[in-house]
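RETRY 2/3 - previous attempt timed out on the joint model. Re-submitting the same 872-residue input unchanged.
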Amino acid sequence: MSAAAPALRELPARGLASTDHKRIAINLGAVAFVFFVAGGVLALIMRAQLAADGGVVSENVYNQLFTMHGSTMVYLVVVPMALAAGLYLVPLQVGAAAVAAPRLALAGLWLLVSGGVTMWCGFLTSGGAAQASWWGFDPLSDLPHSPGSGMDLWLYGVVLVTVAQMLWAGCILGTVVRRRAPGMTLLRMPVFTWTMVVTCLMVLFAFPALLVALCLLWAQRHGGGVLAGNQGAVAYQQLFWFYAHPVVYVMFFPFLGMAAEVVATFSRRRFFGYPAFVVALLAFSGMSMTVWGHHMFTFGQVTNKYFSLTSTALVVPAGIEYFDFLGTLWRGAVRFTTPLLFALAFLVQFLVGGLTGVILASPPLDYGLNMSYFVVAHFHYTIFAGSAFALFAGIYFWFPKVTGAMLREGLGRVHFVLMVIGTNLTFFPMFILGADGMTRRIAVYPPGRGWQPLNELETAGAGLIALATMVFLVNVGISLRRRRPAGDDPWEGQTLEWATSSPPPRLNFATLPPIRSFAPLLDLREAAPAPPGLADGS
Amino acid sequence: MRPNTQHAYDHVAGIYFPIAAAVFVAVVIALGALLVLGARRRTPGRRREANGLEAVYAVLLAATVGVLVWVTFTAESPIDRLVPRPAVRIRVIAAQWSWTFEYANGARVHAVSTWAPPVAVLPAREEIQFDATSRDVIHGFWVPGLHYLRQVFPGHTTTFDLLFARPGRYQGACAVYCGELHSQMLFAIRAVSPPAFRRWLARHRRSR
Amino acid sequence: MRRAALVFAVWGVWLGVWTAAQLLFLHATLPEQTIQWVMLGGASAAALLTGAAVGRAGPRHEGAAQLITNESVASATVAVGLAILLVGTSFGAFLLMIGGGVTLLGVTGVLREERARRRLGRRRTR
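RETRY 2/3 succeeded.
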């Protein structure tokens, strides 16, 4: 069934203009990873400054560092990675030969590269890179308070990458709507594909608010009078947060889907509670569009109680989703591969972030914790200790499919252990510092508060994360050099991408197996008679 | 009801944090148990979908949300509300990068240098109404000891009530990133007994 | 196809429910909060309209052939050209002209691709 496919390194440079969704996704993933390392280096410099409580960089430079760290991670790394995973996997998972509107997806790749480069060029200007945080909120971001061209470059960069992200979401949704194989009904689409569907809904219907906010900001910087005074400042943040709350769920759902596929595969059973999970995904993603005001509880100018209700209500779909994960493991035959380890860590660590989110959804608590390191810990637990771990689960899981070679398990476990220790060392103490009164976004803190030891610990943790990342890169390098061929289906996968060669041919499938559920390959294995000598409990 | 933000925080936190911890422990234990059992299996066991159980569970989750929201709403209303007759009114002006406090009788506290944050003297055990505004960008009036933050906007006066239940020194900081010297934009409040406050106020009276 | 439209429609209705729920909390005296229900209601309406459009658009291409250009340097060129054009709005007419030129180059390339695709499609169906 598998057709011969060229090895990854033999693909010509023309691959940069290829309309193959797999090529585009790989290139996008690679670009996003480069930005991840760059954004991570900025974080390491920040951590050095905070461990020493000053003396490493000036206040001005520190403000550029955290602005560009946050902007890079959100706009250039995690959202692109999420959509890259969808671009690669969704056509395969629904049995399509290609993504819908592939040239738009390709254009998106180049918009992202252009946008990222534009944003980072801010460091080359005389005023330095943008320094108004990844929110770019006014009046801080308007011309008198952010006079440099670094701010304009940031603005253009964000516009370009946001357009790219919307194009990709359209392509992925278009594929689901119009390019599913015969027999692939909506309720036979894999769990990961459903997480991508709800992600793309949020991208299409929430991201325009950011474009509006940035247009207004551009007009304010190039003429003024648009975002004036208090009304303007509030309006900007209403628009911004209408985008920025859904964006954090865009940075969650695809990775949740990756973890779901990994947990199901390595429990040797289909995902538990599929219909409830699909309903929960739709409900959760819809409600994530209704909670944005919780970022503005401390304004005294928004409807706190409404947003507190909607934010707390997220517990219901989230709880269903966790129940379904546990249900998948129940009576499963568990294999502790590296991808599963990362997926399990995601489940535990994301929970810390999620529960602290419920805490912050209560205004009496938020008044005491907002804008402190408690919030910094909360969102790093959800996005880094959560989603990034699930991303690594996905990378270890699908690397064989994408490249045709297995990643080394031994190095994978070293990577895992270093990441777990480093991540928790870096981010857990931040809860304590925040509760003790340490504000976020400060280059130095008062020396008499006793905050330095924990900051030093956090910096050590960040060093471990860097080390872990290097181990991962070494693993990738070795695995591509001294290839251990993966074959079509090294893990006993359940979904259609495992029914073709590794890597898949240009048009994905030579033939398709019958599609009777959301786990077609598992159906085939369960229907086949068991080999003699194996006790069968099913 | 008094605008006691410390009490509101402590009361709500006393419910939310233990529930969060209990949920975390329960999930970790469940996960651990399932993994231990699963590691022993070579083939997966029989399993049915549990739609009924899941529906009941969803209802329980919704009920929990209802309880949490009720706790939050009842704790929030007293601290969001404005007291009709506060004992003291004070005006706060935030500007890049320090704070100015103006009292009704013309007394004024402001920072002389970045390294000496302004210390406002206020009465303990009495309701104080703050009218805060900004001269330039958004700032954040944060008193961690009172568990209270209010963002301060240009061209707008935001009014809120606070109560310092115990005398003492309360650290304050600008919690909303506001530019280059945001880290230095500190202040403090010295809460003293009401008679001591009145004496201090009389000594510092200033004609406008 | 109709079921796919249903996904958008259901999502849009769900957003509509939460838009309406805001009314239970809004005070008539706070005009700043108009923006809240306009944005959420707008997203709800947009999702419903998209559902309607998807429902109208006809059956999906089950297994039918899809003609795609294998590479499209032109698409990449348009993207980079638009980026230069955008940055040029702040950095001078010189960049604007370069951006415009590159975009034009890319657009003509895309048009050529489209023409070739249509020609190939006509040849196939003959």
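Chain A has a mean pLDDT of 94. Closing ticket.
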